[in-house]
Amino acid sequence: MIQTKNKLRYMEIYSDIKERIASENYGAGSLLPTEGELTQLYSASRTTIRRAIALLQEDGLVKSVQGKGTEVISPKKWSRPYPFQEFRNFNHITDFRGAPLVEGEIITQEALVDVVPAEIKIAGVLSVAIGSEVYRIQRMKSLNDMVFAYVTSYVPCPLTPGLEQHSGKFFILYRCLQENYGLTVTKVEETISSSGSGFLESRLLGVAPGSPLLTFQRTAYWEGGIMEYSESSFRPDVYRIAVTMEGPFEWTGADQLS
């Protein structure tokens, strides 16, 4: 069993290195410090460092180069959250929504629910042991018979026994979790970024490999902790995000709305 402390530690290291890449402290084409240097820098074991690096590789931020080390391959400036902490005295965000760019009815297709072993990244987010069983819920959204979104959610199996019985059916995940398992969403954290379409997304969404996509990473909580993690890919030529904010605003740094 992986201890929670260790899992949180490699996630912290992963997040710190990712931020350094985003801010170009580690620029594209440069090498990360060696494994030994990272163990000293973070006062962590080699195993913990390797897990953090594995997550960065999954994100497509670094690659292992034989005879050289770990090379940064994508700075991904867009992955840094916009510094909302620089804003003060918002009245409120008056509107935050996603909306299709063309008229039509959005249809969520039947879900495919199966059980998979938790990979490093999923295990870290859900705070479960690597390799433990989690439910994977895959579904697609279509508009006017065109698939424009692919969504994959992960839920710990012990929280939702028997969830696979819903495979092949249409259901709203959060409603299902509340009505059948008493899991009510209390908080959601979501990151919106951009990415290039991979092989799977290209086939499902009908776009060329490498085409830009809107990417959503969501962590949902109930009163007992994390209940779901999801990754979604949307076609930006079909779907957009609109945010409306009302001031007054005060600025504590150089960042500003323009």
CATH superfamily of the largest domain: Chorismate lyase-like
Give the helices and strands as they follow along the chain. HHHEEEEEEHEEHEHEEEE
How would you sum up the global shape? globular
Strand count: 13
Structural class: alpha+beta
Mean model confidence by pLDDT: 80
Q: Could you list the spans in which at least 5 consecutive residues all have pLDDT below 50?
A: 1-7, 75-96, 253-258
- Return the domain count: 2
**CATH class bucket of the largest domain:** Alpha Beta
How far apart the termini lie comes to 50 Å
CATH fold topology of the largest domain: Chorismate lyase
The percent of residues in helical segments reads 10-25%
Cα-based radius of gyration, to the nearest Å: 20 Å
Main sheet summary: 7 strands, antiparallel
The CATH architecture category of the largest domain equals: 3-Layer(aba) Sandwich
GO biological process, one term: negative regulation of DNA-templated transcription
Organism: Hungatella hathewayi
InterPro entries: Bact_HTH_transcr_reg, Chorismate_lyase_/UTRA_dom_sf, Tscrpt_reg_HTH_GntR, UTRA, WH-like_DNA-bd_sf, WH_DNA-bd_sf
Domain HTH gntR-type: 7-75
